[in-house]
Amino acid sequence: MEAPLFAATEHASPAWVMVLFGVIMLLTYVGVAYERFHKTVAALCGAAVLTALALGLGVFDEYRSIHEHLARDLNIFGVIIGTGILVDVTGKSGLFHFLSMLIVRGTGGRAARLYLAICGLTFVFVALLTIVPAMLILSSLVLVICRSLDYSPKPYLLSVALCANSGAIVTFASGLPNIMIGTAAGIPYMHFLRVSAPYALISLLIALVTLRISFRRDLPWRQSREAVDALRARIQEFDPWALVQSGAVLVRSAVILGLTVIGFALAQPLGVGMDFVAMVGGTAALLFAGHGVEDTIAKVNWTVILFFTGLFVIIACVEATGALEVLAEVVISLSGERPVMLVPILTMFSAVASAIVDNIPVAATLIPIVRHIGEPFEPLWWSLVLGCNLGGNATPIGSISCVIAIHTLHKEAHIHVGWGEFLKLGGMTMLIQVAGAIVYLLLLYALKLYPQL
Amino acid sequence: MFEPTEREVDSVVRRSMEMFERAKVGEVAPVDPRVPQKVLVVLDGSSQDPMSISLADAFRRRFACGLALLDGREGVHDNDLAREAAESLQAQPLDKLEGESYEQILAAVELSECDLVVVPSPFQRELDKIGSDSTGTVIDVLLARAATPLLIVRRPYSLESQPFERVVMLLIGENEAAPAAACWTAGMVSPGGRIGLLLVLEDEVLENVQSLMRSLDPDAEITAENLGQAMQQSHVRLHRALQKAADRRGVGYQLDVWHESDARLAELSAGTQHPLLVLAHERADHGSQGHVHDRIRHSPHPVFVVSMD
């Protein structure tokens, strides 16, 4: 199916309305990107203005239309709430602190092994917990271990920042863009493991190689036997079990998290939504592994829920003008009406856009465009998943993992990482990863290996 | 967390670093579980006596320990109470001693060479009449002078078939008696039971620390949460030692840090499935003294006190 199926909307608004709505959407995104303006407030302001305009200019026939658009995305809120509770409860159980300390201790403190262990832990933790909680755990681990072993934390923390974005493409629930794209496209959890997880691993290997080369002079990659013995003695001072407050809670948390992941994988065959599985996992965590139910519920991320509400309303208003269909048509014409060209265009565009602004609005805007482009859907959805996540590696502000790593390095280790230094490291890594992603996606397309949606 | 602020990142990273630093404990030996070899059971003729006798019987069966019985009442010259109870327990009744009750008990501790005393509070009075107003003079003196730990019986209650299925050691801060109390905690818990180490953050301590820190650094932010973390940090070796002992004994273990106003603290003393509270009593520490007295006064259940000068 190579022919694009673009069809102009029957109820497209006049061009000036499309431009007006597009400009307001872009202004909102500037507000979202502008540090001194709260991004949730920016999104809600944009939503309020566009809703009023959409009703006033007849873009929506009636107010109820907004609710109909929002209803399509309700399941995202279920996933965010459920996984948020689960991550909070398992985090409090000390499970991830315990596991990370156990593995780091197993390296004997040797620089090269520690590097591999920390990058591997980052990949797995982000895949399970999403970027922010994983980054906070691993940043603190790196700082404590590096202080104890007299290593510079910079190579380790920057490695954590870049490997985190590879971990973010492993599963449906590894990051908000995945949840948004997966939900919009109806991609089952298992499809992520079949399509994006293998490339997550490849992109991790790319990052490991580029980072190893870049930091070749920053760490003692080869250490003498005496140094190794001394390091082992120092790392043995750490006892991971001292971090465990209750073995029973730890085991219950691990079991609930494991069952929820299995539930995600089985959601499609069982005929239930990811939101249902996430909510059941969150409820089980509250029931069997929770320390304080009220405290955990209070930590549900209402900021992100309000942000998404605003964002979805903005997208619904702009989409209703027909502007996104026009954009989809532009994208198709840029590709010369060859679907095979759409993959590099979308992957690169989403990566570059995500390197500059938050990848959530990028994904939110591109989702309806991909929907309007038509067949073939599959490679384009994966272009979005890989581009939006890996693009964040390029700049110090491209991904929250980079922001946290650079801020923590400055705050706790008084090490400043400038734009130039980061662009050289992250930009190069991102370019190779995105180029690899395009080749990978086209290869799957050529070999007809995409699972049918 | 969605794009946390710098302040949130700083705070969470710092807490997480403190948690990882807590793992730096080095080699920690497990607590050596301590069980009684000889128990002195003090009777006072009150409705609490059957409870004391039940506990003594449970100890005899479980630890194969020796039992000595003393009728510690003042102004009573016959020894029938101790003799009758001793028969049913296959225990040694001590002869009646002279003097105040606390003098009799302290003399009996030396005579019997016991390592644990089971004693009711309030002594020779009914708990229902005194309530939580006083532990009584006898307990006050024993807490100040007795060389052995005290198992203070507070009220008749139904002794389960497995007494001490859950033993909770409660601490409010650094305490010289804590290591000894931990040994008894690990020893007293029933097979298959659970040990708890409960660190309680008192309002007064929090307010004092906040006030002191503010005078040193007006920007210092001391919350119940980070003070709780600090408490965990300062007790991490005790935690690990108890955890190891629990593993060796095949019993469960849990560390908790609760604020004084936490509703769960009140629940500890509620119902019949209550745990045995083990208190470390450092006699030279006024805070510890007050805490131990307060806990005993408010507990409707037996309290185990390990004292140290």
Write up what this structure looks like.
The complex is a heterodimer of chains A (453) and B (309). Chain A has helices spanning 15-33, 39-56, 64-71, 74-92, 95-106, 111-129, 131-149, 153-167, 176-185, 189-214, 225-235, 247-270, 274-289, 293-298, 302-321, 323-334, 339-356, 359-373, 377-390, 400-413, 419-446. With 453 residues, chain A is mainly α. In chain A, helix 4 packs antiparallel against helix 9, helix 17 packs antiparallel against helix 21 (419-446) and helix 19 (377-390) runs antiparallel to helix 21 (419-446). Chain A has 21 helices and no strands. Among the domains of chain A are: 10-71 and 302-322, no CATH class; 119-223 and 335-453, no CATH class. By secondary structure, chain B is of the alpha/beta class. In chain B, strands 3-2-1-4-5-10-9-6-7-8 form a ten-stranded mixed beta sheet, with helices on both faces. The relative contact order of chain B is 0.14. Classes of the chains: A mainly alpha (453), B alpha/beta (309). At the A-B interface, helix 7, helix 12, helix 15 and helix 20 of A face helix 1, helix 10 and strand 8 of B.
Q: Overall pLDDT of chain B, averaged?
A: 88
Helix content of chain A: over 70%
- The spatial strand order of the largest sheet of chain B comes to 3-2-1-4-5-10-9-6-7-8
Give the number of helices of chain A: 21
Keywords:
heterodimer, A: 453 residues, mainly alpha, 21 helices, 0% strand, globular, disordered N terminus, B: 309 residues, alpha/beta, Rossmann fold, 12 helices, elongated
